[in-house]
Amino acid sequence: MEVLKRFGVSMDESLLKNFDEFINRNNYKNRSEAIRDLIRGELVEEEWLEKGHLVAGAIVMVYDHHKRELMDILVDIQHEHQGLIISSQHIHLDKRMCLEVIIVKGKIDEVYDLESKLRSVKGVKHASLAKSTLGKGI
Amino acid sequence: MEVLKRFGVSMDESLLKNFDEFINRNNYKNRSEAIRDLIRGELVEEEWLEKGHLVAGAIVMVYDHHKRELMDILVDIQHEHQGLIISSQHIHLDKRMCLEVIIVKGKIDEVYDLESKLRSVKGVKHASLAKSTLGKGI
Amino acid sequence: MEVLKRFGVSMDESLLKNFDEFINRNNYKNRSEAIRDLIRGELVEEEWLEKGHLVAGAIVMVYDHHKRELMDILVDIQHEHQGLIISSQHIHLDKRMCLEVIIVKGKIDEVYDLESKLRSVKGVKHASLAKSTLGKGI
Amino acid sequence: MEVLKRFGVSMDESLLKNFDEFINRNNYKNRSEAIRDLIRGELVEEEWLEKGHLVAGAIVMVYDHHKRELMDILVDIQHEHQGLIISSQHIHLDKRMCLEVIIVKGKIDEVYDLESKLRSVKGVKHASLAKSTLGKGI
Q: How far apart are CA B110 and CA B84, in angstroms?
């Protein structure tokens, strides 16, 4: 079970006033929650600097499904990386455009490799990556 | 139907050599495809600078489901923004940690607002956003 | 004179352990200093989201001075924005390449406008921006 | 002497229209110049992913000079990294706040190390980094 620790933080009054306004703007319930979230954000950012680190994330692609071979190519690429992929989900944005979200869990360099292979396929209009974490120790 | 246009690009030999290596490293099939992708990437980045622009994307959250009220709070928040949310998907990372991907389509400031509300809930360890596009005109 | 305020922060032991390692890796002297710096970093990031905000910063350009007209063009552009520019400094990187740092103080949209005008001149190889702050209230 | 190469690029009419608008908004003179700049931007971004790569850049700090020991500490740190530092320049933002720009040329991990040491000094309100390049082959 987790043990809760408590410590003191000192801050100039003017910085504290600006921080409290930041807390309101960003919906945090209290200073501790905001500070924990800033720290966790930094720790996850550092995780993503080490190529071999195990992470989770989601690759979002937008593509034109009228190019039918495209879907076969995208499925083939995903099967070659199936150990990395937890699931993928398909959304119809409009008559032509599809959005696909591929949830991944694995090493960072494998995530980047998969993203690069998907992004570079003709017909894929855009690929982006939400960098997340397995949540260990945060 | 889309009309394909063609134009010439000039480049110093040394830059072209470096570009061709970039193309190989990043799995592009040819120079045109790489250039189109760079341009589309910039256009989508610019889309995300205008608060009122319509976009698509995915919010990825990692949270500890042992805090049971947490799941109720997260569902409540999502219902308050149901017009924005296309679907959400839940992954069990380990015994404690869940990863949830919420696919959104709507105005940028609404996407940021939803992300902020989810991120600030106690028990949510991390939230990140994959910024994507409806794919119009790219 | 600034009044120093003090408040308590609570954190799971495992997060605190990871935070203390973060503090060591990043040379902070203590937890308060690290937390203040994370907060200030977020506040400055938010400053840069409002186009009309007054900020400070530095534009760094690398260009090939063998294109002599280039230097005239760059000086002309800077004179058109002289109200924004505090100083500029020139470094000889090698026989061909120059690095120039332009320190700016003014509205964000004016900073971006100047950066864009410099970056787009033929012969300018790269332009980047260090986003800083006037330091009010932080 | 550099040899100029020329090649053809194909693009859907709608993407080309959006690209031409992008070119106008961003002050580029023609499509070739815009494409070269996008490519150079990507190449420099990739440079900054390899810790040992030689780069140029500028660290911008804002600090409160009323803490007089602070200036001694900052100078000491800079002297310990003098091989990395080309020059530094000091601006008086207002009665209390100083902005200092340190131009650096060296290995990426050394740049980050210096930035981290400066940023973590008590009294330094903000540090940011403009990531630039030696301009080789671009």
A: 8
Nearest to A6 among C5, C10, C138 (CB): C10
Place of tokens 């049971």: B68
Alpha carbon distance D45, D39 (integer Å): 10
Beta strand B97-107 pairing with B85-92: antiparallel
- CA distance linking residue D12 with residue B115, whole number of Å: 34
What are the tens digits of pLDDT across the range C75-90? Answer: 999 999 999 999 999 9
Q: Are C60 and C131 in contact (CB under 8 A)?
A: no
Nearest to C75 by CA among C113, C118, C12: C118
Question: What pLDDT sits at residue D68?
Answer: 75
Tens of pLDDT, residues B52-84: 999 999 999 999 988 879 999 999 999 999 999
**Is it true that domain D54-131 has CATH number 3.30.70.1150?**
yes
CB within 8 Å of B101: residues ≥ 6 apart: A58, A89, A101, A103, A130, B58, B59, B60, B88, B89, B91
Complex-level ipTM: 0.95
CA quadruple C34, C36, C37, C39: dihedral sign:
positive
Structure tokens at A12: 């100039």
What gap in Å lies between CA A13 and CA A57, rounded to an integer?
A: 38
| CA A5 remoteness from chain centre | 29
Q: pLDDT at position B126, please?
A: 98
Q: Is D60 within 8 Å of D99 (Cβ atoms)?
A: yes
Among D10, D23, D45, the residue to mutate for chain B (most B Cβ within 10 A): D10
pTM of the model: 0.95
Contact A7, C8 (CB under 8 A): yes
Q: At what angle do helices A108-119 and A68-80 cross, to 10 degrees?
A: 170
Whole-number Å distance between alpha carbons of A58 and C116: 32
| CB-CB neighbours of D57 under 10 Å | 23
**Three-class secondary structure of residue A87 per DSSP:** strand
Binding-site residues on chain D for chain B (CB distance < 8 A): 2-19, 22, 25, 31-32, 35-36, 38-40, 42-43, 46, 137-138
pLDDT at C53: 96
